[in-house]
Amino acid sequence: MIGTILNGAAILVGGVAGLAVAREISAANxxxxxxxxxxxxxxxxxxxxxxxxxxxxGQIAKQIGIALLSLILGNLxxxxxxxxxxxxxxxxxxxxxxxxxxxxxxxxxxxGFVTCSLLFCVGPMAILGAVQDGLTGDFKxxxxxxxxxxxxxxxxxxxxxxxxxxxxxPVVSYxxxxxxxxxxxxxxxxxxxxxxxxxxxxGLLVCCLALIVLDLKKVRVAxxxxxxxxxxxxxxxxx
Length: 239
Prior knowledge:
single chain, mainly alpha, 10 helices, 79% helix, 0% strand
């Protein structure tokens, strides 16, 4: 739960800072911060993948093969379920609400709450990070998301007011539920030696997020989320 608590705190601090400080972060500093976040995302992804690989060269090659096959199958299922398209629709709805919002709008508090709640919950980092936090205690992905959400809250608060701060309630509830659910199944996966496969696959997904953070390529990461379920299944099948 550390990652989710950190995320909620970042939204709170970002919202308060946005309301208290008139000056916004300069474009140059935003670019530097984006690069720093991108580098940390790559580190977090490679770290998770490395922790999921162990044994002889042959065993490691097999584990990498399972992770890659999991990504392929996960992507196929994700496209079939239209996961990314569904999340994109919610994100687009939230962005439209933001572009229409005005500081003088009497409903801006509720608009800010709904808009930020959607934006902070629908991304793949929320799901992937919460699951990682519950299964392994690795909250690096949520730490990165916390910085991004905190900065976004700082900017949104100037349009929506303190309503954006209330978005931490659904964010903490949503991510916390995912983390607790993952923690509940963690003993079973650990006893069956299936956690490493999820670590390796999840780490590769986190590396893909770096392309998005750095604006290098729009990877449909959400469509790959089912791979987290395929990884332990394939590992169990190919023992």
